[in-house]
Design a protein that fits this description.
homodimer; 186 residues; mainly alpha; two-stranded antiparallel sheet; 7 helices; 6% strand; DNA-binding
Chain lengths: 186, 186
Amino acid sequence: MALDHAILVSLTERAGSGYELARRFDRSIGYFWPATHQQIYRVLRRMGDAGWVTHTDVAQDGRPDKKVYEVSEAGRGELTRWLAEPVEPAILRDGLGVKLRGASLGDAVAVLREVERHRAEHATRLEVYRGIQRRDFPQCDVPGADKLAGRELHQYLVLRGGVRAEESFVAWCDEVIQAMRSERTS
Amino acid sequence: MALDHAILVSLTERAGSGYELARRFDRSIGYFWPATHQQIYRVLRRMGDAGWVTHTDVAQDGRPDKKVYEVSEAGRGELTRWLAEPVEPAILRDGLGVKLRGASLGDAVAVLREVERHRAEHATRLEVYRGIQRRDFPQCDVPGADKLAGRELHQYLVLRGGVRAEESFVAWCDEVIQAMRSERTS
DNA sequence: CAGGACATGTAACAGGTTACATGATTAT
DNA sequence: ATAATCATGTAACCTGTTACATGTCCTG
C-alpha cells in the first residue's frame, strides 16, 4: 500500500486535488513511485472512506469544480506509523534484460537498436532530473548537500537517487552497445 | 506480458518443469524479471492453451511426477516476434524514496536506520552477482567481455546490468547515510 | 522425528494498466 | 476547427502477492 503513503507525503506538503496530485507525481515523488490519475482517484476515495483524508469542494470559474484533499489527524498518524515500519528493498524489473538474454534467439541487431533507444530515453530522464537539480538546488554543485537540512535535504537526496539510477542505466546501455558492436565487427 | 517471454527465453535454453523454472528465475533471469512459482504455473498453463509450449509428463521414482515444458514452433515464432518489438524502459519503484521524502514528517532516525538496512540488503545482492560473475565468467576480470560472443556475451551483459544497478543503490544509500548523519551532528 | 527440497496447484485479494466517458475553456 | 489543459470518474482486465493445500523423500 505504498501509493497511499506516497500520496499522504505529497498531501502533507500541500493540499491538492486528485488531478493536481497526478501532475505532482509526474514530476517529483513519481520518480520513485509512478502513478496514473486513475490509481490516485481510487486511492483518494479509499483513504477518504478510511478517514485518512478529508476533502472540500471548490468551485472555480471557467473550470470544473475540484475536490481539494487534506490529510486528517488520522492520516498523519498513519503516516508516522508507516514511516517507522520497514519497506521492501527495491527490485528491478526491466524487460530489456530479458530481451538481451534472448538476443541470440532472434534478431540481435534489432535488440541492439532497442538498447540504443533505451539509452536515449534514460539520458532524457537524466537531463530532466539534472534540470530540476539546477533549478531547485543551485547551491549544491557536484559534491555537496552540506548547506541543506530537513525536508529540503531529503528532497535533494531523493533526486540524487533518481540521477544515480539513470546514470547507471545509461552507463550499462553504453557498455552493452559497445560490446555488441565489437562482437559484430570481429 | 513480459513474464511469458522471459519464460520462453529460459525454456528455449533448456526444457524444464514449472518448479525448475521457478528456481532458475531465482538465480538468473529473475534478476531482471522476478517471478514466484504461482505466477510461473499460471503463465505456463496459459501458454499451453495458446500452443506456445507443450509438456510431457515425466514420472520419477521417489519424487512427484513433473511436467517438462518445451517451446513449440508457435512459441519460437512468438519469441522472435517479441524480440523485434519495443519494450518499455524500466521504471524504478522504490518505497525507500517515498520514506526519505517524508522523513521529516516522522522519526528521521528510524528512516536512517531503514536506509542502512537497505544498504546491507543491496550489498548482499551485489556480492551474489559478483559471485556468479567469478564462477561463470572467470576470464572477464574488470574491464572486458572481449573474449565472449553470442549467448554467453548476452548473459554476461545482463549480469553486468545487475551488478551496476546494485552498485548504484549501495552508493546512493551511502550518500544518504552520510548526509543524514552529518545533518544530525551539526 | 523435524525440516527442507521436490513438485503442483487453487483461491482470494491487492495493485497496476488500458480504454472509455463527459464536458468546459484556452491557445494555435 | 483542432488540440491541449483542466477535472473527475467507471469498467474491464491483467499482473503480482499471500495464504493455503497435498504428499514424498532425504538429511541431520
